[in-house]
């Protein structure tokens, strides 16, 4: 009985996921626009966008069969966690920067950590996803690892996060395009544009805050 209810729920969300994609897109676009100007309220829109994206990704169907995009589910659950971290972390940084746009320099230790995380994480996660119904394990795995790193760097206010987001979002666009999730494709395309604008604005107007 429970399996039947779950199956019916998945089918319903899959058949009606366009409006959920639209909700995710609206919240995501708002979040990324606010990120350009480093407004802390953006984190709440990030949470809403991620919740909607989890629903879309976890109820994905391929040829009538359940084919959840597990990497996207994991990513958006992690993004919710990082948004909560960002809310409190940025409150402290705003005080240290006098309420101005703040940038924390990336330390050598953190650079090494990021390099190791990418080098180990990409092949490992991609391999693990081959054991799931994920239709694009390598693309999903790579985008997942890069996004995990980018989200952490963003929560700590490192400007380098934009470079990781640009590559990750480009890969995510490919994944959603192969599944005909066009609203999600549009949203992540917009993300790339805002990442470029955000990088320029942070670089121009950011105040360096030491950890």
Give an account of the 3D structure.
There is one protein chain. The chain is mainly alpha-helical and 211 residues long. It has one domain. Helices cover 76% and strands 4% of the residues. The chain contains eight helices and four strands. The strands form two sheets. Strands 1-2 form a two-stranded antiparallel ribbon. Strands 3-4 form a two-stranded parallel sheet. Strand 1 and strand 2 form a beta hairpin. Helix 2 packs parallel to helix 8, helix 3 packs antiparallel against helix 4 and helix 4 packs parallel to helix 6. The longest helix has 27 residues. It is globular, with a radius of gyration of 18 Å. The termini are far apart. The model has no long low-confidence stretch (mean pLDDT 87).
């Amino acid at each position: 009985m429970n399996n039947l209810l779950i199956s019916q729920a998945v089918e319903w969300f899959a058949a009606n996921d366009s409006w959920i994609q639209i909700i995710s897109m609206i919240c995501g676009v708002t979040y990324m626009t606010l990120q350009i100007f480093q407004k802390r309220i953006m984190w709440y829109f990030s949470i809403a966008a991620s919740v909607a994206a989890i629903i879309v990704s976890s109820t994905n169907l391929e040829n009538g069969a359940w084919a959840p995009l597990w990497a996207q589910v994991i990513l958006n659950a992690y993004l919710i966690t990082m948004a909560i971290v960002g809310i409190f972390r940025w409150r402290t940084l705003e005080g240290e920067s006098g309420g101005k746009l703040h940038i924390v320099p990336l330390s050598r230790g953190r650079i090494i950590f990021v390099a190791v995380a990418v080098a180990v994480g990409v092949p490992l996660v991609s391999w693990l996803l081959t054991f799931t119904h994920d239709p694009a394990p390598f693309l999903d795995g790579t985008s997942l690892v890069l996004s995990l790193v980018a989200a952490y760097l963003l929560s700590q206010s490192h400007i380098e996060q934009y470079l990781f987001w640009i590559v990750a979002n480009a890969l995510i666009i490919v994944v959603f395009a192969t599944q005909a999730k066009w609203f999600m494709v549009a949203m992540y395309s917009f993300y790339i544009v805002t990442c470029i604008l955000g990088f320029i604005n942070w670089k121009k107007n950011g105040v360096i805050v030491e950890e």
